[in-house]
Amino acid sequence: MTTGFEKLAQDGAARLGVIRTPRGEVRTPAFMPVGTAATVKAMLPESVRETGADILLGNTYHLMLRPGAERVARLGGLHKFMNWERPILTDSGGFQVMSLAGLRKLTEEGVTFKSHIDGSKHMLSPESSMEIQRLLGSDIVMCFDECPALPAEREAIARSMRLSMRWAERSRAAFGVRPGHMLFGIMQGGLERDLREESAEALKAIGFDGYAIGGLAVGEGQAAMFDCLDYAPGFLPEDKPRYLMGVGKPDDIVGAVKRGVDMMDCVLPSRSGRTGQVFTRRGVVNIKNARHADDPRPLDEACSCPACRSYSRAYLHHVFRAQEMISGMLLTWHNLHYFQEIMQGMRAAIAEGRFAAWEAMFHAQRAEGDIPPL
Ligand SMILES: [Zn+2]
């Protein structure tokens, strides 16, 4: 079996495809739920699968600190450890070192930092990130890179991007030849078109199995992100998957796919599920709102997830207010189900050449807003 990406159809810039791995196929456009600490919070792995997810994302930074990559390897690898036998993508740890760790020191070699858990000192470099992701057993490995927060000076973005490109070369060398596993490069360059192109050229010269668009969804806003996505995917090879990291809200996801993105990940559906924020076809519903207290209707009558099939808004409101665990479980399930339903809807629309009509319907339903209170 060949490991890799095949584009099956295209409608405008939107692409339908499949990533084949020894652990199964990933249908694209794909949304990857985030399993930060070897779990998608509040969900059993089989439930995550039931929502339609083909692949999960694991966080190198979290797993290297706790329980430790060597321990996971001794216990048979991340798939076995967390009971998810399908594909897993791991990030490089770079982004979270920058956002979570204390006392960071960035050099050409890599980043030294203190754990946010116990203050212990660690080092991440292209070489150590490749080794940790190998120990975890990740199917799709990400290059170690630096992601500057926006807004930033053009000079700082250029300097950071060129460092990431040198790290990409070292990541490629350290990854070596590993049949059945893929290594993705990460494009940087902020909102500067020429820097994005320079970054893409550098990555293509090294050669990767897939290409991520990094450094977006870091505070620039949707309009600026879409402006960048109007050109950035076009700098990348046609025949390789394109992954937009850390995105996003339902309308971000649809806009990204429309512009030629194949894969995305975000904590939003699971994190929001724990804070009472629900994503539906008709926009966002805040379940803690008093209007739901006596409402016997489901969140979304057209949704087939367990939260909508078997529970009322009144019950979901009650268990959220009472801080019962089932609240996070049901709302996370619904949110993940809805995100996967969006992906399935887009895949079907691209296959049939009706993406524009699907997108118009998506926006029209959202514009209606939530069902009126009783
Ligand atoms: Zn539902």
TrEMBL record:
<feature type="binding site">
    <location>
        <position position="334"/>
    </location>
    <ligand>
        <name>Zn(2+)</name>
    </ligand>
</feature>
<dbReference type="InterPro" id="IPR002616">
    <property type="entry name" value="tRNA_ribo_trans-like"/>
</dbReference>
<keyword id="KW-0808">Transferase</keyword>
<feature type="binding site">
    <location>
        <position position="188"/>
    </location>
    <ligand>
        <name>substrate</name>
    </ligand>
</feature>
<comment type="similarity">
    <text>Belongs to the queuine tRNA-ribosyltransferase family.</text>
</comment>
<feature type="active site" description="Proton acceptor">
    <location>
        <position position="91"/>
    </location>
</feature>
<feature type="domain" description="tRNA-guanine(15) transglycosylase-like">
    <location>
        <begin position="13"/>
        <end position="367"/>
    </location>
</feature>
<dbReference type="InterPro" id="IPR036511">
    <property type="entry name" value="TGT-like_sf"/>
</dbReference>
<dbReference type="InterPro" id="IPR050076">
    <property type="entry name" value="ArchSynthase1/Queuine_TRR"/>
</dbReference>
<feature type="binding site">
    <location>
        <position position="305"/>
    </location>
    <ligand>
        <name>Zn(2+)</name>
    </ligand>
</feature>
<comment type="subunit">
    <text>Homodimer. Within each dimer, one monomer is responsible for RNA recognition and catalysis, while the other monomer binds to the replacement base PreQ1.</text>
</comment>
<feature type="region of interest" description="RNA binding">
    <location>
        <begin position="246"/>
        <end position="252"/>
    </location>
</feature>
<feature type="binding site">
    <location>
        <position position="145"/>
    </location>
    <ligand>
        <name>substrate</name>
    </ligand>
</feature>
<dbReference type="InterPro" id="IPR004803">
    <property type="entry name" value="TGT"/>
</dbReference>
<dbReference type="GO" id="GO:0008616">
    <property type="term" value="P:tRNA queuosine(34) biosynthetic process"/>
</dbReference>
<dbReference type="GO" id="GO:0046872">
    <property type="term" value="F:metal ion binding"/>
</dbReference>
<dbReference type="GO" id="GO:0008479">
    <property type="term" value="F:tRNA-guanosine(34) queuine transglycosylase activity"/>
</dbReference>
<feature type="binding site">
    <location>
        <position position="215"/>
    </location>
    <ligand>
        <name>substrate</name>
    </ligand>
</feature>
<dbReference type="Pfam" id="PF01702">
    <property type="entry name" value="TGT"/>
</dbReference>
<dbReference type="GO" id="GO:0005829">
    <property type="term" value="C:cytosol"/>
</dbReference>
<feature type="active site" description="Nucleophile">
    <location>
        <position position="265"/>
    </location>
</feature>
<keyword id="KW-0862">Zinc</keyword>
<keyword id="KW-0671">Queuosine biosynthesis</keyword>
<feature type="binding site">
    <location>
        <position position="303"/>
    </location>
    <ligand>
        <name>Zn(2+)</name>
    </ligand>
</feature>
<comment type="pathway">
    <text>tRNA modification; tRNA-queuosine biosynthesis.</text>
</comment>
<feature type="binding site">
    <location>
        <begin position="91"/>
        <end position="95"/>
    </location>
    <ligand>
        <name>substrate</name>
    </ligand>
</feature>
<keyword id="KW-0479">Metal-binding</keyword>
<keyword id="KW-0819">tRNA processing</keyword>
<comment type="function">
    <text>Catalyzes the base-exchange of a guanine (G) residue with the queuine precursor 7-aminomethyl-7-deazaguanine (PreQ1) at position 34 (anticodon wobble position) in tRNAs with GU(N) anticodons (tRNA-Asp, -Asn, -His and -Tyr). Catalysis occurs through a double-displacement mechanism. The nucleophile active site attacks the C1' of nucleotide 34 to detach the guanine base from the RNA, forming a covalent enzyme-RNA intermediate. The proton acceptor active site deprotonates the incoming PreQ1, allowing a nucleophilic attack on the C1' of the ribose to form the product.</text>
</comment>
<feature type="binding site">
    <location>
        <position position="308"/>
    </location>
    <ligand>
        <name>Zn(2+)</name>
    </ligand>
</feature>
<protein>
    <recommendedName>
        <fullName>Queuine tRNA-ribosyltransferase</fullName>
        <ecNumber>2.4.2.29</ecNumber>
    </recommendedName>
</protein>
<keyword id="KW-0328">Glycosyltransferase</keyword>
